[in-house]
Specification:
The protein is mainly alpha-helical. It is built from 4 helices and 4 strands, in the order αααββαββ. The chain has a two-stranded antiparallel ribbon with strand order 1-2. A two-stranded antiparallel ribbon has the order 3-4.
């Protein structure tokens, strides 16, 4: 007689990993609640922590979605919605 291995969906793995990252319950308490081995929960938590920075990678090839302070410091939005690099940060005083 062969037994099939239990397969968990990515959504359920993520839910368990988030609960483990929160740290409100021990791994043994989570294991009892979700009916998963504590070592498996620790592995999912470690994987989630290691890969969380990949969630915010820009797929367009530039690397990051959000600019750093140095990259975005010179650009300000004008009231009309256009972007000008020389728009001052102090509310627009000094422009003709």
């Amino acid at each position: 007689m062969t037994t099939t291995r239990k397969q968990y969906s990515p959504k359920s793995k993520a839910r368990v990993a988030v609960e483990a990252i929160r740290g409100e319950k021990t791994l043994n308490q989570l294991a009892g609640h979700f009916r998963v081995h504590p070592v498996q929960i620790a592995h999912w938590r470690k994987t989630a922590i290691e890969q969380i920075d990949d969630l915010f990678v820009d797929g367009r090839g530039r690397g990051r979605i959000y600019p750093t302070r140095e990259e975005g410091a010179g650009c300000r939005r004008r009231p009309g919605g256009a972007v000008r690099a020389d728009w001052p940060a102090e509310g627009g005083a000094g422009l003709a």
